[in-house]
Amino acid sequence: MKLDSSSHLRNLVLILGDQLDERSAAFDEFDPKQDAIWMAEVAEESTHVWTHQARIAIFLTAMRHFRDALRARKWPVHYRQLDDAENLETLAKELAAAIKKLKPQRLIMVEAGEWRVAQSINDVAEKSGVPLEVRVDKHFFCTREEFAAHAKGRKQLRMEFFYRELRRKHGVLMDDDQPTGGAWNFDAENRASFGKNGPGKIPEPIAFPPDKITREVFALVEEKFPQHPGSLKHFDWPVTPAQAQAALQDFIEHRLPSFGQFQDAMWTGAENLFTDSASRSQAYLFHSRLSAAMNLKLLDPREVIVAAEKEFRAGRVSLASAEGFIRQILGWREFVRGIYWHFMPDYLALNALHATAPLPKFYWTGRTEMNCLREVIGQTLAFGYAHHIQRLMVTGLFTLLLGVRPQAVHEWYLAVYVDAVEWVELPNTLGMSQFGDGGIMASKPYIASGKYIQRMSNYCAGCRYDPAQRTGPKACPFTTLYWDFLLRHETMLAKNARMVMQVRNAARLTPALRREITDHATRLRAEISTAT
Prior knowledge:
By secondary structure, the protein is mainly α. Helices cover 48% and strands 5% of the residues. It has helices at 44-47, 53-72, 91-102, 115-128, 144-151, 159-170, 212-224, 241-254, 256-262, 277-284, 291-295, 301-313, 319-343, 371-383, 388-402, 406-416, 422-433, 450-456, 477-488, 490-493, 500-507, 511-530, and strands spanning 11-14, 36-40, 77-80, 106-110, 132-135, 174-175, 178-179. The strands form two sheets. It has a five-stranded parallel beta sheet, sandwiched between helices. A two-stranded antiparallel sheet has the order 6-7. The N and C termini lie far apart (53 Å).
């Protein structure tokens, strides 16, 4: 069923690419006899950052599957494909054209996931003179208004206290009014490395081979965006609600039991990494890779949390593992969304450390002699995926220590990760990873030397650099830049109670060693900036 310009249209419901939820508030009181749905694929959403081919593909194929599910319900959907000859390439132009043709009395949508997109749609609605109703997104546990109330009057915002509030409010891992197990988090039990023997055999994660719609999208991406980073070779992401449910059950049964203990661990060891099925296990380890499905709204986070808690209550997983996983969703995921909308649009421009260096070119190729960066960037380009420690303590740590402009780091993360939507990616990158917000998101800069990477992975084995050395030809760049970071920001860091020990260690350095570290770091920056 399609409406044309002569049809009477009450409401035009706008559905964005990360709002693929049939239970969305946008559909409340939807009447297919009076209302219609609008969706659009536009090049702008793949080019405002140089987007990974797999990220483009997951949005487009999930959108097309969602469109077909709505049409199967006999709901009218006005859908613009990227390869339509009439495609106007931006959401604003496509929406303006749809309003002009369909003449709706009202526009309805749930809250956008990106400030830029929200502003664009608001501008179109205002110029068209059609009222726009923006509804609260029921997908989340905490509304923007509730987060603002939580933040009001607080000198500092910390995830831990916010997380406890949500645990109490929603009764998650609670026994009466007390946290299950007598503690709010079990992070200390969830920091193990794999040791010298590695993770052993990891259950192969469920895969979703591309169907006809997905294969058509692949062909389109390869035609329209051939120079974009990454590849579609390993694409096996869930792109429908049914597939997302299957992915959830696969994780709960096969990987959640070991997730907590090893959630920070990193490992690689296959000679032919990223070329066979074994590499999928090594890329994903015990992680769920459910974030993309949740961020597209194919999977309700409530169902994910209920499933994890149920496994603990049934005695099939430890409390530490269940709590560690739930904290990522109920804690960090909700917290970063609150931070994003509470502080935007000014948040995007923050640069508390005054970092100005450009992003190293090897972030787009993986061609570097630093084994840890080569492995993680290679995995990212191959799969569009890296887990949270690979992002925070390898790719993010290096740019922080190097002094890269945080907005450039943000754009890279938004571009290369399949699960990246700005509301969740920006605070995690600019705030937590790069400390660009000066402490709004995190209580300290997350800095470490190469010794941390050596302890949590096998990346350093066979690398030409030695993480124990801070200067000299074999000095690990992470270690050199770690000490240089402490020296460059010594005054600021001395005011941070959580940095006392590291600042004291830097204070013990002799003047000669300080000069040697600074000189080595300066040469290193010059080499990186000129490398092709």
